[in-house]
Structure formats: structure tokens, C-alpha cells
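quick q for whoever's on today - can somebody do inverse folding on this one?? i tried earlier but teh output was garbage lol. C-alpha cells:
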């Protein structure tokens, strides 16, 4: 736990010193959703119809935008090589990095989502479900994307390959994330769909760091 806390503090400090990596995903998320009323229609019924998909696709793309350079700085500075050869299990600092990354890039998306959902004319009774679905879904998106980022860290211009690798894996989270919002809009029961999102989060949180650590070793040739 002491190693985990030290790694988490380091990752938070490194990210905090790079404000662009924190602001860019949030700015992208806000701007993409803000453009839809201008591009499609300002009619409330039209916006409410597309809102679940728009929110989740924008969140997915914002998370992917932040993941391309997740391990690249560590590779360029030599920290990644030290991490892979240290006596500490690689999964411990990897878990700390993923948690720090989500706290400073994914959590802001969750916090701002009710405002954007209201702008897309979603009913007030649904705003809590929007926030809860993203709270459960964005960590899973981060972990899944980190697996692709670990596998492509040694490649130049690996962003396209990263998208090819992780987009199919994002589909279940996207389906149930948008589906729970649509279910809430229709007045249906949402606990079951939220439970599926929670199960996906538990699966990715438990196995994802192991897969990321393995991907880093594969990329480095260790």
C-alpha cells in the first residue's frame, strides 16, 4: 500500500504539472456536445432523442483522446524501463497510474455531464442517472483504452492502431451506458442496467491492470 500511495502521489503530481492533458479531454467533451444542437436541430424532442448516444460517444472519444500518450512520457524519460525492471510488481504502479489518470481526466467529465445533459434537453429526473452511468462507465473506458495504449506505446503514430484495438472492446460499455439513460427517459427500471455497468467496471478494474502490465512488457520486449 505504501508503494501504491507513493506511485499515486507521483502520477497525480505529474499530471497536475501538465494541465493541457487535463483540460483537453474536458474541452473536447464540452465542445462536441455543444455543437450538436447547432448541427442537427435545437428542437427539444430531437435533442432528447439523440442525447444518450451523443453523451456517451463524446465521453468515449474524450477518454481515447487522453490515452494516446498515457505511457509515452514514461517511455521517453526512461521511467517505464525502470518500472518494468523494478522488484515491485508492475501491476501496483500501473493501477496507481490508471487511478490518477481517471481522477484528473475522467472524473471531470462525470461532474460536468449533468449540465451538458440538461443542455441536450434531458429531463431533470434523468440527470442523476447520466452522472451515475458515466461514473461507472468512464473508469472501464480508461482501463480498456490503457490496454491498447500499453500495446502501442513503442510505435510512432500509434493513435490509429490504438483506436482499432480498443473500439470493439468499448462497444458493451457504450451500449449499456447509453441504454441506461434511455431506459430512465422511458420510465423503466434502471438498477439492472446499472448493475451490468458495475459488473463491467469490476471486471476491467480487476483484470485490466494485469493486462496493461503484460502489454507494457510485450511492447518493451521484456
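ok took a stab at it. sequence:
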Amino acid at each position: 500500500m505504501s508503494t501504491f500511495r507513493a506511485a499515486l502521489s507521483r502520477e497525480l503530481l505529474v499530471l497536475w504539472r501538465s494541465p493541457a492533458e487535463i483540460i483537453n479531454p474536458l474541452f473536447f467533451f464540452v465542445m462536441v456536445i455543444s455543437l450538436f444542437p447547432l448541427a442537427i436541430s435545437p428542437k427539444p424532442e430531437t435533442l432528447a432523442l439523440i442525447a444518450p448516444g451523443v453523451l456517451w460517444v463524446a465521453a468515449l472519444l474524450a477518454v481515447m483522446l487522453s490515452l494516446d500518450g498515457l505511457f509515452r512520457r514514461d517511455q521517453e524519460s526512461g521511467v517505464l524501463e525502470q518500472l518494468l525492471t523494478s522488484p515491485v510488481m508492475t501491476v501496483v504502479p500501473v493501477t496507481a497510474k490508471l487511478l490518477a489518470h481517471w481522477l484528473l481526466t475522467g472524473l471531470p467529465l462525470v461532474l460536468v455531464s449533468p449540465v451538458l445533459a440538461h443542455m441536450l434537453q434531458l429531463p431533470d429526473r434523468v440527470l442523476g442517472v447520466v452522472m451515475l452511468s458515466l461514473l461507472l462507465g468512464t473508469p472501464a473506458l480508461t482501463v480498456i483504452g490503457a490496454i491498447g495504449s500499453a500495446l502501442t506505446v513503442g510505435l510512432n503514430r500509434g493513435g490509429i492502431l490504438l483506436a482499432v484495438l480498443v473500439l470493439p472492446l468499448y462497444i458493451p460499455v457504450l451500449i449499456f451506458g447509453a441504454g441506461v439513460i434511455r431506459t430512465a427517459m422511458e420510465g423503466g427500471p434502471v438498477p439492472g442496467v446499472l448493475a451490468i455497468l458495475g459488473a463491467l467496471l469490476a471486471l476491467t478494474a480487476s483484470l485490466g491492470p494485469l493486462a496493461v502490465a503484460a502489454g507494457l512488457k510485450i511492447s518493451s520486449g521484456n
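fwiw The chain has one domain: 2-220. also The two ends are 26 Å apart (CA to CA). so keep that in mind when u check it
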